[in-house]
Amino acid sequence: MPMRGLLTPMASKRNSQPQTLSFSELTIWKTKLPDIQFAVLPPCNDRPNPLATEGRIYVSVFSPGAICVLERADGRLIWRRELPKFGHSSVYLEDRRLFANTANTLIAMDPDSGEILWSFSPYGREGESIYSSPSGREGRVYIGDRMGWLHCLDAASGKSIWKRHTNKTKNCSVNSTPVLINDLVIVSTNAKTALAFEALSGKLVWQQKLNAPSVFGPLVHRGSVLAVANSLYVLDPTTGKVRRRFSWHDRKADLAVTTPYSIVLTFRPDLSRANLPSDKAAAERIAAQDVEFSTMILVSNSGVQRTKQFVAFCPHFRYAPTTRLLYMSHLGGVDVFHPTTGRLLWQLKTTEDTNGGVGAVDTRDNKLYVLTGDGTVHALRHPAQV
To answer: pTM for the full model?
Structure first.
């Protein structure tokens, strides 16, 4: 029995085998963005690129850096704003302001016109000083930097309200995306810590040690905060105490996605194959025998774990509340999974060279919105509509 609201075609009810479809079979419209070298930067959080709203599609382009806005109905380009250097992995829309990143600057824009309202560069416009993504609430915006600082800015003007140094270690970067919960702003750091500050004052509330640098997330899951290091930490957002910790021996957690039913994790690639024999023929024989399996773990709310293997290059996951399904973007397209069992439902294959990337998808009104590395935005019918 499928979950209520889950998009499952009749064929999948009769047959557990996944259905394979091409982008061309599902296309409603597609738009090639202008002046693209490479569009997709792998995500550092669970935000989509492109971002679909009621009437618009917002796209962050990696190279050359740009923000593009399209009509959601037909893919018509409304405006394009060039960014200095490279664009971030996603945009962020909050309180009628569109926030975009480069490697050293946070930019606030008018989402209707692309007009730049203000910009924030804590160390100037040279180098790479910001890998963090912004989060905002109640007229404030929070973002980390690679010098270990967490900044609180006025959302209307970009002026600094407060900033706090999170650590003094050599690898001090705050590359994570701040989480706002219970009047706190929570970040994880490369210094193997997660920290919470009062959102209004910046006062340090708690600090929790982790067993490795933490770049992806944090994430909110059923009243807890998830910090992804080598292990997965389930933290009390008020105190920072560890409620649960999941570890997998020699495997190191890489990315995580939260759903109402489970936490989904993937692991860092096994680089042991880098130690292949120096003899070319012998190395090729060994490589040909190894299938490039990746592993995802689905941890249910009760703690029960399911392990699923898949074959994909550069995978990243996103859960879509609108369809209650789990989407994996990878170099060859998008795979769609059941978020509780991990069963593969559909494989959506690209039909053209994508220039090596597919962004984290967004869904709206039973449609999929996908950005490929060549700078093409695809509006696809969801497989349940076929």
So the answer is: 0.89
